[in-house]
Amino acid sequence: MYRHLEECVEDLEKHGQLIRIKEEVDPHLEMAALHLHVYEKGGPALLFENVKGSDYRAVSNLFGTVARSKFIFRKTWDHVQQVMEIRNDPMKALKSPLKNMSTGFSAVKALPQKRKKLPSEFKEIMITDLPLIKHWPEDGGAFITLPQVYTEDPDKPGIMNSNLGMYRVQLTGNDYIPNEEIGLHYQIHRGIGIHQTKATARDEPLKVSIFIGGPPAHTLSAVMPLPEGLSEMTFAGLLAGRRFQYSYIDGYCISHDADFVITGEIHPHETKPEGPFGDHLGYYSLIHEFPVMKVHKVYARQNAIFPFTVVGRPPQEDTSFGDIIHEITGEAVKQEIPGVKEVHAVDAAGVHPLLFAIGSERYTPFEKAKRPAELLTIANRILGTGQLSLAKYVFITAEDDQTLSTHDEKAFLTYILERIDLHRDLHFQTNTTIDTLDYSGEGLNSGSKVIFAAYGDKKRQLIEEVPAFFNKLSLANNPKLVMPGVIALEMTSYTNGDQAADEIAKLGDELNGEDNLSECPLIIICDDSAFLADTMSNFLWATFTRSNPSHDIYGVNSFYRHKHWGCDNVIIDARKKPHHAPALELDPDVQKSMERFYSTITF
Q: pTM higher than 0.85, yes or no?
């Protein structure tokens, strides 16, 4: 059980899971490039001992593998899972009261512990003293990528009514006054938004504390979707194996366990341009107005270490976060959404754009014909639940096949495509909210959703090779088989919606009536069919991050009937659009300069 981050670093090094980088490394792109290289190779955590321009060390890739994350939490892992199981299903405690007696005591012992004053090893510093890490070439400045952003409910102040979240923080660049202002970017459906709304209604600034580092348990707590009644601060104590230590200085909550703490205020209606930032969908999130935080004080622990990660096209280190969260929360989603068996946010597609789900279908067991009914209720519950509500595409079926798993993405999609009735089983939601980081829609946070609901007997045998007629099309070329039942076609670059609709309507006319076309229920229009068909990861990423269901889904022989849209074959236009954000690419000069490390770092 680590008291601070340095103890974790030493433990990982002792067990061969961390290496030290002693040579000076530039926080401008170099540190991120080295991190990406080592993560891709499945390598160890990296301790940067000589960060150019800063007196402080930095560490990355702490959570780079699930095995390493579980190693870090090995002393508390089983007990935390026990607590979560009881929280998710309290009846378990009643069934085995003696076995689970210690669980309640553990939660009480994990409650935050208030101290009278700041520890003597803390000193005041400035923002510019921190390792100012810029990750991607077009980033607007240096960012904190593993912050723990702490706020309290203005109507019910106190640590037990607080929110601890991970929202990126821009330290430099744009119009921020150096050392006095920083940018705070948070997406919709976040707890801090509720607190800021209440503070604004009271015409008061919202006090914010940003903790960086400390026990790794605190970092993970900032991204955990916790059951009702279990605060992030209590969970941090449970996972760390020791109570969260804090005090109030100048009215701000200060973590005694953190390596760095930044305090400040967000004032009502005050924003500044934030971004761009290379984000986890694999594209830049662009410049938008977000809250500006007026810096009050910055603290650093003696011998502090600055943790960071690099986000980009999945998989990245935050993929491991997702896997760890899934293991800890276990059956929570089943308790929250009755009838659901599995929900899988597909990492390869950037998490929020694509959800796979398995539910129950119990509405009409007396009928011989099977069709989605309860599945639609469950899908709508999914789209009304927390972060799951940001999904654009939901593919859902029932649990008739007990071997089916949402995590076997190719098999799951095959199962759906074999059974879906495209005249009946597509359900759209238009003019609604999508992920803040997703630029496939009509504007920030604005787009559409679609549910593909399939249930019943197998309706078609999916094609296993490209039919000959796909090579004779006049408007599309270079057809490639992506997976059974899915063909990728190239078309000329996208210009505008009207032209795309006209082109794809003509393509649909060409395809209509071809033999065996029913065996190919999904056709993807793209810029590079060889890339899209090369791997499942490429297919999932390019298709579902580059399309907005209401605007980019077309169909062969499509129709409207009583305001319901259907077709014989779905066509998704996954070409890059002028309004899309640019994809992330590393700086080739930086890549070349980092070769000095690639040959010397062994693991």
A: yes
